[in-house]
C-alpha cells in the first residue's frame, strides 16, 4: 500500500461531517449534521438507523460521491475533502462502494467479465492476460464460477448480482469499501450467504469496511464496532457486542426490540419498545434531543438541552440524558429500564 | 350456490394447482397446495423468493388469470362457497368486502391520482352501499385506527405525501375498511425498516383481535412468523414441505428446509453464539425441477437413491405434515463432539 500511516492511526477519519441539501424556497435540509467517526485498517464499522436517518448520504459523502457541506474526511494520510477532481481520480481506486439494489447497480449492457475488467483497465497498467487472471480471481473470491464472465446481469439472481457487485468493488484491492445495505433486499437464506462471504473477505483482506444496514442483528454479525444514526446524527457508538447486548441509548434499544426472536413464546411475552410516531422531518428537527418525540423515557430536560456524548466503558458513547438525569444509568444498559417498568407511555407492548 | 355448512372452515384450500404458459412450456408454480384457515386465526406461508407464495395468495381470489396464469386443479372454499370458477363479477364482490388484500408492492395498489381518503371511501361506498359522508367518515376512522396522526386532515393528502411506512398503514386501512372476515397480506412488511415492521405487526395483531378476522400472512422471514402466526405452511419449489402449529415448528422443525431457514437467521446465530449457516444454492426454477425430493440438491442430509429417485409425498407426523423421508432419523442426530446443537429437531449440516 502506498500511504501506510503510523501504527494505530485509523484508515478512515471523518470529522464533523455535514451534508446540507437545498430543497427550494430557501430551505435547507441537514441530512448529515456533525458526524465524526473512524475506521481502522481491516476493521468494519456498522452504521445502523432507520430509513432517512442519513446513512447513505454519510457513505456517499465519505467517498465524495455527494459533496460534503462541511467537515473533513481523511483516507490514510490523504485528505479527501478539498481535493480537486483531477486529484480525486487516483483516490477512486482506493475507495469503493456496493449499493443496496442489486438490480440497478450493474450495467445491463455489459457482460460480467467486461464490468469486472473495466476498473482494471482504467486504474492499472496490467496486461490483458494479467487482467483476466484478476477477474477470475475476483469471481473466485465471491464463489462464482469463472464461466460467468461472458454472461449478462439479467441472467443472475439478486444474491448472485450482489456477489458480482462485491467482486467489482474488491478487484482493485481498495483500502475502504462502503457497503450500503448490501443484504437488505435479499431473502434470509441469500442474506446469510452474503454475510458469510463478507466475513470470509474480512479475514483475508486488509480492507476497511463501512457497513450500512437497518437491521441491528446483521450489523452485530458483520461489524467490529457499531455507530447508530438518528436524524442525521450519531446517537451511540461502541463495540458491536456491547451495543447489541447492552444498548445505552433508547433508540438503539428500540432497534434491538424491533428484531423478532425466533421463539414464539419468548417473542410474544418479552418487554420491548415499539416505536410510535414518525421520524420528524430533518427540515425541522425537535429541540434538545432529536429523539425525544418518540422516546418512551423523555424527560423535561430532553426538550431543553442537547444531550452530551456520555462516554461508555469499553469505548464509544451514548448521547442521552438518562445517564446523568432521572434513573442516572451512568453508562448502563437501557434494557434495564425496559424490563424494569419505568415506562410511562404505551410504547412498550407485552 | 351451495348452502354453507355450519362447521365449514372460513377458508379451505384443497390441491390448489396453478400453471403459467411460458416459452419453456407450461410451468406449475403452485402444486397441489392444501390448507385450511379458521376464523380468527393467523396462518403464515413462509419460503424463499420464487417458492410460489404470492401466486398461491393471488389465485385464492381469482387474481392469477389477469396475470396469464390458470388454476388448473383444486378447490378454494370461502365460508363453504367454491371460489374457483366463479365469474369475475362475483369475485369482485367478495374481494375488498369479505376478503381484504394487501399486495407485496405498496405503491402499485394505491392510485397516485386520488387522495387516500377518497380511495378508502370509494371502496366503502362500493361494497357497503354507504353514502358519501358515511364513507368518508369511515375512511377517516380507519386512518386513525392504523395510527395516522391528524387523520381527518391527512385523508385529503395524495399517496406520495406519505412515507413508506405510512403508506403501508394506509394500505392496511384500505384492506380493512369493509370489515373483512379474511385478510390476505403478501409480505406487507418486507420492504420496511425493522422498526416500522415491528409497529405494523403490532397493528395487524391488534386489528385482527378487534375485528375478529382471520389473516393469511405471507413472508420469507421466520422472525415475523414467530411474532404473529398460529399455524405455519412452509413452501418450497411450488409445494408445501411442512405444515405445523407455530410452536411445534420452532421447537422441532421436521423438514431440513425449515431448519435451514431458521439457522440462516442472524438472530439464531447470535442466540446460539454459533456461526451463521446459510442454505447453499437457490430455489430451482419451475421448469427445471430436480428429480426425487425437490430440495435434495441443497439438502445436507440428502441420500442418493432414497432422496433422489421418487417424488416425496407430504405425510402426517406428530400433529403436522412434512415432505421428507428422513425426518424421524434426523430428529435425534448422534451428537458430534464440539458441535453446538442449535435447535432440537432436524439439525443443520
Ligand atoms: N439529493 C437529495 N436532496 C434532498 N434531500 C435528500 C437528498 N438525498 C437525501 N436526502 C434526504 O436526506 C435524508 C437522509 O437520506 P439518506 O438517503 O442518507 O438516508 P438513509 O439513512 O440512507 O435511508 P435509507 O434507509 O432509506 O436508505 C433524508 O431525509 C432524505 O430525504
Ligand atoms: N406472471 C407470471 N408468469 C410466469 N411465471 C410466473 C408469473 N408470476 C410468477 N411466476 C413464477 O412463479 C414462481 C412463484 O412465484 P411467486 O409466487 O411470486 O413466488 P414468491 O411469492 O414465493 O416469491 C416463480 O418461479 C415465478 O417466476
Ligand atoms: S436524551 Fe431524553 S429523549 Fe433523548 S434519548 Fe435520552 S431520554 Fe430519550
Ligand atoms: S427427503 Fe432427503 S433430500 Fe429431501 S429434505 Fe428430506 S433428507 Fe433432504
Ligand atoms: Mg440509504
Ligand atoms: Mg412474493
Task: Give structural attributes.
heterodimer, A: 350 residues, alpha/beta, Rossmann fold, 6-stranded mixed beta sheet, 4-stranded antiparallel beta sheet, 14 strands, 31% helix, B: 349 residues, 12 helices, 12 strands, globular, binds adenosine-5'-triphosphate, binds adenosine-5'-diphosphate, binds iron/sulfur cluster, binds magnesium ion
Break the fold down into its secondary structure elements and pairings:
The complex is a heterodimer of chains A (350) and B (349).
Chain A: E1 12-22, E2 28-39, E3 44-48, H1 55-62, E4 70-75, E5 78-79, H2 85-92, E6 95-98, H3 112-123, H4 128-141, H5 158-170, E7 176-180, H6 188-204, E8 208-213, H7 216-222, E9 225-230, E10 233-239, H8 240-245, H9 250-257, H10 264-269, E11 272-273, H11 300-304, E12 309-311, E13 317-319, H12 335-339, E14 348-349
Parallel strand pairs in A: 3-8, 3-9, 6-7, 7-8
Antiparallel strand pairs in A: 1-2, 1-4, 4-5, 9-10, 11-14, 12-13
Helix pairs in contact in A: 3-4, 4-5, 5-6
Chain B: E1 11-22, E2 25-37, E3 42-46, H1 53-60, E4 70-78, E5 81-82, H2 88-94, E6 99-102, H3 116-128, H4 132-145, H5 151-154, H6 164-176, E7 182-186, H7 194-210, E8 214-219, H8 222-228, E9 231-236, E10 239-245, H9 246-251, H10 256-263, H11 266-272, E11 315-317, E12 320-322, H12 327-331
Parallel strand pairs in B: 3-8, 3-9, 6-7, 7-8
Antiparallel strand pairs in B: 1-2, 1-4, 4-5, 9-10, 10-12, 11-12
The complex binds adenosine-5'-triphosphate (ATP), adenosine-5'-diphosphate (ADP), iron/sulfur cluster (SF4) (2 copies) and magnesium ion (2 copies).
Folded structure, characterized:
The complex is a heterodimer of chains A (350) and B (349). Chain A has helices at 55-62, 85-92, 112-123, 128-141, 158-170, 188-204, 216-222, 240-245, 250-257, 264-269, 300-304, 335-339, and strands at 12-22, 28-39, 44-48, 70-75, 78-79, 95-98, 176-180, 208-213, 225-230, 233-239, 272-273, 309-311, 317-319, 348-349. Chain A has 350 residues and is an alpha/beta fold. In chain A, strands 6-7-8-3-9-10 form a 6-stranded mixed beta sheet, sandwiched between helices. Chain B has a domain at 99-179. An 8-stranded mixed beta sheet of chain B has the order 6-7-8-3-9-10-12-11, with helices on both faces. Chain B has a 4-stranded antiparallel beta sheet with strand order 2-1-4-5. In chain B, β11 (315-317) and β12 (320-322) form a beta hairpin. In chain B, α6 (164-176) packs parallel to α7 (194-210). The interface between A and B is large, with 44 and 45 residues. Residues 55-56, 180 of chain A line the site of one magnesium ion.
